[in-house]
Structure formats: structure tokens, C-alpha cells
Design a protein that fits this description.
The complex is a heterodimer.
Chain A: E1 4-7, E2 10-13, E3 18-25, E4 31-37, E5 44-50, E6 53-57, E7 64-70, E8 73-79, E9 87-94, E10 103-104, E11 108-112
Chain B: E1 4-7, E2 10-14, E3 19-25, E4 31-37, E5 44-49, E6 55-58, E7 61-65, E8 71-76, E9 85-93, E10 96-99, E11 103-108
Parallel strand pairs in B: 2-11
Antiparallel strand pairs in B: 1-3, 3-8, 4-5, 4-9, 6-7, 7-8, 9-10, 9-11
Classes of the chains: A mainly beta, B mainly beta.
């Protein structure tokens, strides 16, 4: 257990489905992140929340919608995804600036069919 | 934008041998972090280097930050099967953390 919990661990969804990924941390961190990890590609930063405010959105398609209701929880809402969105989605948290290492969750392995 | 490049992409090592993986940035970095991701796992923070020329050791792993703060290296001595995985460097510039593509290490017993 890393201190950052992601659910579900695996998800298979159709292109017309709506689903949500959940991330939870109780490390006292004030920044949370969503990353996408595809095979043979660098980790792609999707969204950054600092003190519950979205501070970065790296040109992510609108079919991905983040939500951060408080500093301990982060969601990624998914709708009308494409097969190329299949990947490992990783949540991470940190003390809010890049002077500290990130703690990653175990990830959600998403397959879009 | 800032890019962090890692070489080699793949490293096949005989058990017991040493190897080094390198990380290079196009811009000067405030700090550099290293992570390890085991097969089927998630990235785990290993260490952070902040000072120019800094060297840190963790058992058989030696991490170095270049004098110009644009490159870093990870040297592993006497490789073991437990060293298998992908090693990522991540550099900070302008308060943004950018990950390299990683070096995937396999070990021949």
C-alpha cells in the first residue's frame, strides 16, 4: 500500500460508457495529479490540482473530466472514450511543489473496447 | 518546452555486472528525481538531487547530478534480479516536473 489508493485496479469500458476513476490519499499532501502511462511513452501529465484548485490542464480532450472535491480525493470522469485512450492511469500526490517526490497510486488499467 | 531524455531505452545486464543509465535535459534543472517502476507496478520515488555535482548513494545505487545541473546518472553495481524494472528520471524547471521515457532493465541470471 503506497498511501495513495486508486480504484478500480482494472476497468473495461465501451466507447459509449461513462465511468469514473477514484484516487484517495491520506498523506497530508496538498497537490494531486493524474498521469497517463501508455506503452513505450513517457508519463504524460494530464491534470494538476493544488489546494483543490486545478492549476494545470495539459491539453487533455474534454472526454476526460477531473474533479477534486477536497485535498484527499481526486476523480477522473470518463465518457465516450476512444480505443487509443486505453492505458494505465496513475494518480499521484505530493507536498505541493516539485521539491518533494511524488507518491503514486497503483494505477487503473483501462481498456476501451 | 523542457525535455528530459534518458539513455539507453533498454539495458540488458548480466547478473553481477554494473551499469549506468543517463538522463539529459535541454534546460537547467532545479532538481532531479529518480523513480523505479517494477513490471506491473507503479513508479516509486527513490531519491532527489538538488545541488550541482551532488552524489548520493543507496546501497548499490549511486546517483549523480551534473555540475551544470542539466544531466544526471544512476549507476548500479553488482546487478541483482531485484533490480529489474524501469528507472525514470524527472527534472524540475520553472516548477514543472518532466519525466523521461525511462530505462527498462532486464537481468540475465
Amino acid at each position: 500500500e503506497t498511501g495513495v489508493t486508486q480504484t478500480p485496479r482494472h476497468l473495461v469500458m465501451g466507447m459509449t460508457n461513462k465511468k469514473s476513476l477514484k484516487c484517495e490519499q491520506h498523506l497530508g499532501h496538498n497537490a494531486m495529479y493524474w498521469y497517463k502511462q501508455s506503452a513505450k511513452k513517457p508519463l504524460e501529465l494530464m491534470f494538476v490540482y493544488s489546494l483543490e484548485e486545478r492549476v494545470e490542464n495539459n491539453s487533455v480532450p474534454s472526454r476526460f473530466s477531473p474533479e477534486c472535491p477536497n485535498s484527499s480525493h481526486l476523480f477522473l470522469h470518463l465518457h465516450t472514450l476512444q480505443p487509443e485512450d486505453s492505458a494505465l492511469y496513475l494518480c499521484a500526490s505530493s507536498h505541493g511543489d516539485t521539491l518533494y517526490g511524488y507518491t503514486f497510486g497503483s494505477g487503473t488499467r483501462l481498456t476501451v473496447v | 518546452g523542457q525535455q528530459v531524455m534518458q539513455i539507453p531505452q533498454y539495458q540488458h545486464v548480466q547478473e553481477g555486472e554494473d551499469f549506468t543509465t543517463y538522463c539529459n535535459s535541454s534546460t537547467t534543472l532545479s532538481n532531479i528525481q529518480w523513480y523505479k517502476q517494477r513490471p506491473g507496478g507503479h513508479p516509486v520515488f527513490l531519491i532527489q538531487l538538488v545541488k550541482s555535482g551532488e552524489v548520493k548513494k543507496q546501497k548499490r545505487l549511486t546517483f549523480q547530478f551534473g555540475e551544470a545541473k542539466k544531466n544526471s546518472s544512476l549507476h548500479i553495481t553488482a546487478t541483482q534480479t531485484t533490480d529489474v524494472g524501469t528507472y525514470f528520471c524527472a527534472g524540475t524547471n520553472d516548477y514543472k516536473l518532466s519525466f523521461g521515457a525511462g530505462t527498462t532493465v532486464t537481468v540475465r541470471a
